[in-house]
Amino acid sequence: MPIQLKMEKRVLLGSRESRRLRRAGSLPGVIYGGKSSGMSIKIDTVEFMSKIGYRKSLGIVELDVEGKALKSIIKEVQWDTLTDQPVHLDFQQVSDDQLVTVPVPVKLNGIPVGVTLDGGILDHTMHELEVTVRAADIPPELTFDVAELHLGDRLHLSDVDLPEGLTVDFAFDPVIAGVIAPKALLVKEDEEDEEGLEGEEGEEGETAEGGEGSSEE
For a pLDDT cut of 70, what percent of the chain falls above it? Predict the structure, then answer.
């Protein structure tokens, strides 16, 4: 069942009114798309945080605007960088069959063999993926299996099977996750390489000095 949010139309607009609303416990917002495009609304902040909060992929959200039901998706939430609280909302009115482009969280499943057998570290690179899909079919998350990754392996977007009806931009074929060597191991290898270079330089210096002594004699 879609999440339902109750809200009211805003009559007074402007930044001063928005600040007053936030102090009073409400969030200002705007609904775009459809016949309601450009409608200014307000919603109780506690209700928004309890039902939506910090989640990004929710599918269709049903808006009750003073008794009028509207299907929508959340297009953008603006956050206060100091308090980490929402300050403004943008909704997009949609139909079930309408294609929309939204970010979806990426989760990983399994423990790579490169971690269990080789002591590597799982590097989760992609935490969300922008997808195009029917509004009614927006997935809450995308889960990809990483159990077969060995040390040095990378899982690219082109390596995975996406749900039917969902499309993404493969132009850059980003890395979803990989198994990398532990930092301590990399530092140790770098130190060993540096010691090897210093040893080679020392041997060259000794040879050069010996050569100079022979010429003087």
Answer: 84
**DSSP-assigned states of every residue in 10-73:** --S-SHHHHHHHHHTTEEEEEEESGGGTTEEEEEEHHHHHHHTTT------EEEEETTEEEEEE
| Tokens 């997009």, residue located | 92
Q: Does domain 101-183 have CATH number 3.60.20.30?
A: no
pLDDT at 213 over 80: no
pLDDT on residue 137: 93
Residue 214 reports pLDDT greater than 50: no
Residues 6+ apart with CB under 8 A from 119: 151, 182, 185
Return the CATH fold of 3-94: Ribosomal Protein L25; Chain P (2.40.240)
d(CA 21, CA 129) in angstroms, rounded, equals: 33
Domain locations in the chain as residue ranges: 3-94, 101-183
pLDDT of residue 126: 94
Identify the DSSP state of 167.
B
